[in-house]
Write a structure and sequence with these properties.
515 residues, alpha/beta, 7-stranded mixed beta sheet, 5-stranded parallel beta sheet, 15 helices, 23 strands, 20% strand, globular, binds nicotinamide-adenine-dinucleotide
């Protein structure tokens, strides 16, 4: 069934043509800076008085202003999506798939401008932005393929009755994405709901409302009818609970922190007056991802994998490594190698909308929280590299390597979501596995080892949704490494798969007596 699917290929920015196109896209972004973005409800563009300011994390300059949605307008958006559901849910899958394929083409045609906005708004580098765009294309193409297959219904045993069992859409979804993958996560969450025949209201992150706006505009241009996809940025505290608790909301697709995910799960469980269903919640949440290095590992390779997982995109990938659990006899060597890699990244650190390996963290809140953890790290271990930061021009934090950290230290157990790596010494592989599994999370994990016995053991005992051996814990590719976490890392929805789409579908079993 997967035959014929090809992952999108990232652009090579060392090719002059690509670099020039990207520079041109940045000029276009420059010309658009400071614009106001309205809500989009039923295709109508509505400007509100209250605004969300989108700031560049690299320079603190204003990129634009998104209209902030009130509860009244959020209600209007849900009613609009509810009405659109009546027609969209009955639109043949073939037509929905056609819209999604058109959307994939439009995203490809707007590749450079989407990449440039992503770089400006989220602070990632060019390669990461384009990698994200490829992931978005992979989501669209995989969901189009899966939907075509699901549309055939469930295979049943033939009898003398007429029977079929078909997948049908369920209703209005509240799409609540994070800021760190403003195109691929937001786009994947929206399109999985649309292609399955549902309608959505999307409340993007207040840090990246412009990328989300550009994407929703493309959805409408691709032919998804007005009202099927509605764009309503707003503060979580103002409309977050409201849209989750609304009686016409049928499901919530959330990706973000554990704290917000738990709150949404709890709020969604309450049955509001007039509500006719139990809401479904897909919640993909945080992580405290560990990489284990045993005595038989290729230490240089392990250090490179750890540093890349911990520090690229400033440690702000949910799959980022933030704990290294290293056997005592290779500990010092591993620490030294990780420091070398961190130093190399730091020396190539960029500023502004650059293509350097490391850039800024997303905002002042994140900067304060991460640098707070660096101060905790000074007490909980020895900082052997980094520990320095500045918010003079943008929110910059150096890659920070902390050694001699106790397994129970805060920096070894709490999600920091920044470029801070805690290295814990272990005396056996069993101890490493025990520590790896001791946090409440279970998202990604890696093991560097040349010992088959250890590898086999970890395959069974390392409790994470995405487990890797002798490679880094980041850079999951659609339909190669289906993504989703265990425990407090989420509901293990495994994005990009056919299983993922069934979260937004009911199965209707139909039987007719032919006698
Ligand atoms: P966050 O939880 O702060 O925000 C996520 C979204 O929830 C935002 O759109 C926010 O506005 C909204 N929100 C806030 N309060 C709300 C409420 N009461 N009701 C409804 N919505 C509300 O997370 P973030 O800072 O945007 O993203 C970083 C987090 O996301 C990290 O914890 C990271 O690990 C996690 N993440 C997980 C995955 C994954 O696949 N597991 C992927 C990316 C990011």
């Amino acid at each position: 069934m997967i035959k014929g699917f090809k992952n999108a290929v990232e652009l090579d920015f060392s090719v002059e043509e690509n670099r020039l196109k990207m520079e041109e896209a940045f000029r276009q972004v420059e010309a658009e800076k400071g614009k106001v973005y309205p809500l989009i409800i039923g295709g109508e563009k509505i400007e509100t008085e209250k605004k969300i300011t989108s700031l560049s994390p690299a320079t603190k300059e204003v990129l634009g202003y998104a209209s902030s949605c009130s509860r009244e307008l959020a209600d209007k958006a849900i009613q609009t999506a509810d009405e659109a559901f009546l027609t969209w849910s009955r639109t043949p899958a073939e037509e929905r798939i056609r819209c999604l394929k058109r959307l994939a083409r439009l995203v490809e045609q707007n590749r450079f401008i989407l990449d440039a906005w992503n770089v400006e708004e989220s602070g990632k580098n060019w390669g990461e932005a384009d990698g994200e765009l490829c992931e978005a294309l992979d989501f669209f193409n995989s969901y189009a393929m899966h939907m075509a297959n699901l549309d055939k219904g469930l295979e049943l045993i033939p009898t003398d009755e007429y029977t079929k069992c078909i997948y049908i859409p369920i209703g209005v979804g509240a799409i609540i994405p994070p800021w760190n993958f403003p195109l691929s996560i937001c786009g994947g969450m929206i399109t999985s709901a649309l292609v399955t025949g549902n309608t959505v209201i999307c409340k993007p992150s207040s840090d990246t409302p412009i990328v989300a706006y550009k994407f929703v505009e493309l959805c409408l241009k691709a032919g998804f009818p007005e009202g099927t996809v509605n764009y309503i940025p707003g503060a979580g505290s103002e409309i977050g609970d409201y849209i989750v608790e609304h009686p016409r909301t049928r499901f919530i697709n959330f990706t973000g922190s554990k704290a917000v995910g738990c709150r949404i799960n709890e709020n969604a469980a309450k049955v509001a007056e007039g509500q006719k269903w139990l809401k479904r919640v897909v919640a993909e949440m945080g992580g405290k991802n560990a990489i284990i290095v045993d005595s038989s590992a290729d230490i240089k390779k392990a250090a490179e994998g750890i540093a890349s997982s911990a520090f690229t995109f400033q440690g702000q990938k949910c799959s980022a490594c933030s704990r290294a659990l290293v056997m005592a006899d290779v500990y010092d060597e591993l620490v030294d190698e990780v420091v070398k890699c961190a130093k190399n990244l730091k020396e190539n650190q960029g500023s502004g909308a650059s293509n350097a390996p490391m850039g800024p963290v997303i905002n002042k809140g994140a900067y304060d929280s991460i640098t707070g953890y660096i101060e905790v790290a000074r007490k909980e271990g020895t900082i052997v590299y980094g520990g320095t930061y500045s918010d003079e021009t943008g929110y910059y934090i150096d890659p920070t390597v902390v050694r001699d950290v106790d397994k129970d230290a805060r920096i070894a157990n709490e999600e920091i979501f920044g470029p801070v790596l805690a290295i814990v010494k272990v005396n056996s592989f069993d101890e490493a596995l025990e520590i790896a599994n001791q946090t409440e999370y279970g998202l990604t994990g890696s093991v560097y080892s040349e010992t088959r016995e250890n590898i086999q053991k970890a395959k069974v005992e390392f409790q994470v949704g995405n487990l890797y051996f002798n490679r880094k814990s980041t850079a999951a590719v659609v339909l190669q490494h289906p993504f989703g976490g265990f425990n407090m890392s989420g509901t293990d929805a495994k994005t990009g798969t056919s299983d993922y789409l069934t979260n937004f579908l009911n199965l209707k079993s139909i039987t007719e007596d032919l006698n």
